[in-house]
Amino acid sequence: MKLFIDTGSVAEVEEIARWGVLAGATTNPSLLAKEDGEPEEIIRRIADLVDGPTSAEVVSEDADGMVAEGVALRGLDERIVVKVPFCAAGLEATSRLADLGHPVNMTLVFSAPQAILAAEAGATYISSFLGRLDDIGMDSAESLAEIVAAVRDNSTGAQVLAASIRNPIHVTTSATLGADVATVPGKILRQMLAHPLTTSGIDQFTADWQTRPEFAVWLKGLVDRSGATA
Ligand code: G3P
């Protein structure tokens, strides 16, 4: 499963892109509205930082407007994926944009029937929301499993992109259920790092190493001799 970062924060992408785990990014109008700075510069910068598919969302409510906005957004960077909300106009826009060769991420998908329509319309990615289903007491894992099963064997090549990720368990569930991508907020990516046994294990390695100070001298000499620079 590929990991995208779900954010409008350039600083957050700068921090986490250094980990070497990001294959792309997704933005949306709410995420961009929270940020200072111009959306064009933010979108371009994020696409550069992840050097992969970066979703930028249209806001028009009619297909013609969605197509026009999508083509314009694609002009910002070849890595831009046009994000289109799921609805009848969105299906038409997705079909027209796909016919023009533009990749589309259909978003706000909550059910397998919706995902089937998005795939048949030509979506490259289908953003299947988890957290917002949990928020209303529905079983997001059951929904995602149905979407993966419904889309997996079709001939469209559409990828299931798990979205609305609220915790590390959502990421694990997305991977084990077969989602192709999970788009994860920076806060959750940082939570994925944490485990108390990892922290205590590193602390113990450090403490034990420090009981043999001559080892530190050896390792520094090895680094110096190798010409490697820290
Ligand atoms: O960006 C799409 C989706 O990941 C947003 O999720 O529910 O946290 O707003 P949410």
Query: What's the total count of β strands?
Result: 8
- List ligands, each type once: SN-glycerol-3-phosphate
Quickly name the level 1 CATH class of the largest domain.
Alpha Beta
Distance separating the two termini: 32 Å
Descriptive notes:
It is a single chain. The protein is an alpha/beta fold and 230 residues long. The chain folds into 2 domains: 190 residues, Aldolase class I (TIM Barrel, Alpha-Beta Barrel), CATH 3.20.20.70; 31 residues, no CATH class. The protein is 53% helix and 17% strand. It contains 12 helices and 8 strands. Strands 1-2-3-4-5-6-7-8 form an 8-stranded parallel barrel, surrounded by 7 helices. Helix 4 packs across helix 5 and helix 8 packs parallel to helix 9. The protein starts with a strand and ends with a helix. The model has no long low-confidence stretch (mean pLDDT 97). Bound molecules: SN-glycerol-3-phosphate (G3P). The site of SN-glycerol-3-phosphate (G3P) has 11 residues, from strand 6 and helix 7.
